[in-house]
């Protein structure tokens, strides 16, 4: 049984470090015909994996989508619940910033986000709002790192938190007015899910697995373009009623709707699949022997 998070080294190699991308592709090529059962983190990745298997003449074996868990939903937070000390450490005030979390690398599309914030200029600063970016530098980030540090030093509408532990990140989510996920693509959408579970509205690009993570609780923009991001951010910055409606919708779902998957659900799902494979006596197949899809394909 093998879990696939995404297939960007194959589908979009320009988003992946060449050394990692080559190692990923080489290893996956050796495994394609040996895996008894596949797991993916989204239906989006499942469709990609199916296409890659069929392209190689392999009938897709059992492929299931693992329910992605997350932190316990927090729908009744008040100002008193915020960890003020963590916010003060970064010169932040609850409700006066919006949050973007992710590794600083090309696929995450921080350049377009920054352009959108800069274009909004006075509209953001007049409301004492700040865009807080949380993430460590990644591959091909040199020019973006320089840009982020320069803007942050100017004390303007952008702050960069290079590293945050779980407790600190939790406080940053809790204190945010809303969050933004500007990525060009994602296999899933962990930060979308985290934002919603903290009761915080999220603006996300309608790409890849992000829609599945956000369900009908996130606000989606058509593309990762500067204009689309700018307009969506502008609306949430200037229209507090829209943010309040989004928060109420999330809160209602967390309290009354069908529960979002937990890590307990994910663990139970994995255990059930493992027991199925054990009871079926499934063994590893030789690389020269492709086989038909299993009955658990979803």
In short:
By secondary structure, the protein is of the alpha/beta class.
Description:
- With 298 residues, the protein is α/β, with parallel strands linked by helices.
- It has 2 domains: 2-69 and 262-280, no CATH class; 79-256, Rossmann fold, CATH 3.40.50.
- The chain is built from 13 helices and 9 strands.
- The chain has helices at residues 8-11, 18-31, 43-55, 84-89, 110-120, 122-125, 142-153, 166-175, 190-197, 210-214, 226-238, 240-256, 263-280; strands at 2-4, 37-40, 62-65, 97-101, 130-134, 158-161, 178-181, 202-205, 219-221.
- The protein has a 6-stranded parallel beta sheet, with helices on both faces. Strands 1-2-3 form a 3-stranded parallel beta sheet, with helices on one face.
- α10 links the parallel β8 (202-205) and β9 (219-221).
- It is globular, with a radius of gyration of 21 Å.
